[in-house]
Amino acid sequence: MLHKIDLGTRRFIVWMAVAFVVVAVDQVTKWAIIQYIPLYGKVPLYDFINLTHQQNRGAAFSFLANEGGWQRWFFVVLATGVSAFIATWLWRLERQAPIVLAAGLALVLGGAVGNLVDRIRLGYVTDFIQVVFPTWTFPSFNVADSAISVGAALLIIDALFFSGRTPRGIVGGPSGPNPTGPNPIKKD
User: Fold this and answer.
1) Domain-located, residue 123
2) Domain encompassing residue 124
3) Which label site among 8, 28, 134, 174 has the fewest CB atoms less than 10 Å from its CB?
4) Which residues are catalytic?
């Protein structure tokens, strides 16, 4: 049956599967942390990294964490809207769209949904990876946060180097206008 599905739909299914894997890994790791590490507990892995159990009721770096509870539903609505937008973007991607763009979108989508599940189910996001420097500790994060960060980096790379670019030498491409006359590809 899969062979009858057009290439665009197959690509969409693949990228949604990537997002689903991110959500699944995120949720399984958070479940394990909640089950096996007490709240605010710490398990050193190396000199520079710990597993910990934190509850983040805010956004990145605990932004708005100490508000009265309204932020939970604000972030639920925001994450739902962003997730729907990204899923629609993935659906509408051209077959020739750079893989780095689709991968970035899928990772951000998976991370957003992973944290969304926590906010709806628990009222907070479980963070558990803690990177320690000699004089400073980086705020704790999770698999979803990591996927969002890597996905955002891929989106920046795509914007700088891939999307909207035409290969050099193509009429109207970065090498400049066609010296022989109007662009034969554009219909005047």
Assistant:
1) yes
2) 2-161
3) 134
4) 127, 145
